[in-house]
Amino acid sequence: MGYRILETDDIPGYLRERGHWDDVSDIRVREVSDGNMNRVFLASSADGTRSLAVKQALPWVRVAGPSWPMSPDRADAEARAYDQVAKVAPDKIPAIHGYDPENHALVMEDMSDLEVLRTRLNEGEPYGPHTSARIGEFVAQFSFATSDFGMPSAERKALIAASVSPELCKITEDVVLSEPYSEHEHNHWHEGLADLAASFRADTRLRTEVADLRHTFMTSAQALLHGDLHTGSVMVGEREGAHVVRVFDPEFSFVGPVGYDLGLYWANTLVSEERARALGTLSDHGDQLRLSWEAFETEFRRLWPTRVDTFFDDAYLDRFLRRVWTESLGYAGTEIIRRIIGFAHLTDLTTLPDPVPASRRALAIGRELIVRRDELDTSNAVRAVVQPT
Ligand code: SR1
Ligand code: MG
């Protein structure tokens, strides 16, 4: 039948065709699309006892419309990432009930009982004691398993070949790792930030450091990554008395530097901290970089004795983790900057009564993380950059 764009009314029939639901008369559907890229529908039974989510990639960037075409093959990358994570961290992703490559659609667990982490933080809630630890473990488990430490060489070469995602990587190379430092029609900013945007474009030291991070993004094939691990890609909540953390939306998944995933998460925690500081709701925000790193490092070291290639010795592990730390700081800086003067901004800042002071502070922090990443060797050193004097 070929690829067709699903509308709300198509979902009951689609779920029956795909073998997920027999009684179409029982299905109620609502569209809940929220991110920049795709459509999402929630289907539930009339009595509310059963529900599923359907996510479909459109042939364009959803928020831009058909003027920005984008292959829906990105859903293949998402399904592939979920397959890999399911082997090592199934408790940290939604249950996937099926992938339909013809329609680029995933049928998955309805997580509407949980809340997007960014939404919760924007409402003034704290992270709580477990969220960032689970994220650190997620990055460690996923990256270790898909690195040369956790996967036999030939299997990994096949994974690298299958996971090449040129179109989505190009988006990141452009909107995250170059456009914010050049004149580009995608860029926009609050008028109170125009001087900083101009100074970043003229900052040759900063541009060279970003070029280095960009080239590492393009060439370092350490592990399969989520690729867009911001606080809008994390759901949190309680189920049966337990704190639940689910990472979703890995459509930007590719084989790259592990620090890219940690760095994106760190950037978003640091921006959430600036929002909380501006609103006087600061709580545990300042602990999150440290907590996620400690959980990442602990889990990576716990997995290390299981490595398949033992030529990589313990001394190399220390060196590898140091490199991940340093690159994470650099990518955190690029994510902060692009979210303020690039294409896709963060509601953490845009919904502040006056976004300018917090955005200026965040931009300054982002620059520091990039240009001083080699010398910022502990979470306390990073704190000294972030903490107002
Ligand atoms: C055109 S896409 C802009 C951003 O939206 C996605 O969520 C990614 O973060 C991407 O960089
Ligand atoms: Mg997304």
Mean pLDDT: 97
Overall tally of domains: 2
Main beta-sheet strand count, sense and barrel state: 5 strands, antiparallel
Determine the N-to-C terminus distance.
Answer: 62 Å
CATH superfamily of the largest domain: Aminoglycoside phosphotransferase (APH), C-terminal lobe
Q: Based on helices, strands and strand pairing, what is the structural class? A: alpha+beta
How much helical structure, as a percent, in the residues?
Answer: 40-55%
CATH top-level class of the largest domain: Alpha Beta
Q: How does this model look, in words?
A:
InterPro entries: Aminoglycoside_PTrfase (IPR002575), Kinase-like_dom_sf (IPR011009), Methylthioribose_kinase (IPR009212). Keywords: ATP-binding, Kinase, Nucleotide-binding, Transferase. The strands form four sheets. This protein has a five-stranded antiparallel sheet, with helices on both faces. About 45% of the residues lie in helices and about 15% in strands. Helix 4 (about 130-145) packs parallel to helix 10 (about 290-305) and helix 9 (about 260-280) crosses helix 11. It is an alpha+beta fold and about 400 residues long. It contains 14 helices and twelve strands. The chain binds 5-S-methyl-5-thio-alpha-D-ribofuranose (SR1) and magnesium ion. Magnesium ion binds near residues 35, 37, 228, 233 and 249.
Main attributes?
single chain, 389 residues, alpha+beta, Phosphorylase Kinase, domain 1, Aminoglycoside 3'-phosphotransferase, Chain: A, domain 2, 2 domains, 5-stranded antiparallel sheet, 3-stranded antiparallel sheet, 14 helices, 47% helix, binds 5-S-methyl-5-thio-alpha-D-ribofuranose, binds magnesium ion, EC 2.7.1.100
